[in-house]
Protein: Ribosome maturation factor RimP
Amino acid sequence: MGGRLGTRFVTAGVRIRACGVYWGGNSSKGVGGSLTFFRGGGGFRLLVSRYNMNNNDNNLMQLASGALEPLGFEVLEVQMQNMGGQPIVLVRIDRLDEQPVTVDDLARASRAAEEEFDRVDPVAGEYRLEFESPGAKRPLLRARHFERMLGLKVRVRAEGHSFTAPLTGVDGDRVTFDVNGEPVTLTAGTFQANLAEFPDRHR
Structure:
């Protein structure tokens, strides 16, 4: 069972309603949904309300990546959140060609991922599926991510380390930060890192 739903775009405080975005659901699995777009915090967000009555423990990151990487998207993170008692699956994506993520990209990614989520049913009960562009606090997972953000401040959490400091160098997988005037070097992929300031241009 499918249907055409209104899509709401919110850009710089101006709200525009547009119809004709197709979203397919499967009534035999108790699935339905709606789409909402927001822009804020340096990125776009697409909300897809979902009603899923089945339960599965599949890895959400693997599920989203498998659906989106063939389309040229990189899944930066998938988070299970809870807002007011409602489960939320947040999928944050970037483009593999390093171009800015657009609202059209989020819509295309959502359609592809929804098919996989419908097929696998990874979350029990009613939940909301959200797609977001990298934004001001984008995760930095691999060396190339750090190379693109050289000179910016990064929030780092690792065993024995917790700091926010400028990113000063990348050599292979070795990433160096200026922490209170002292260099601290870590290996990309072994610690948690998020941007702590938004770049003045797309990187």
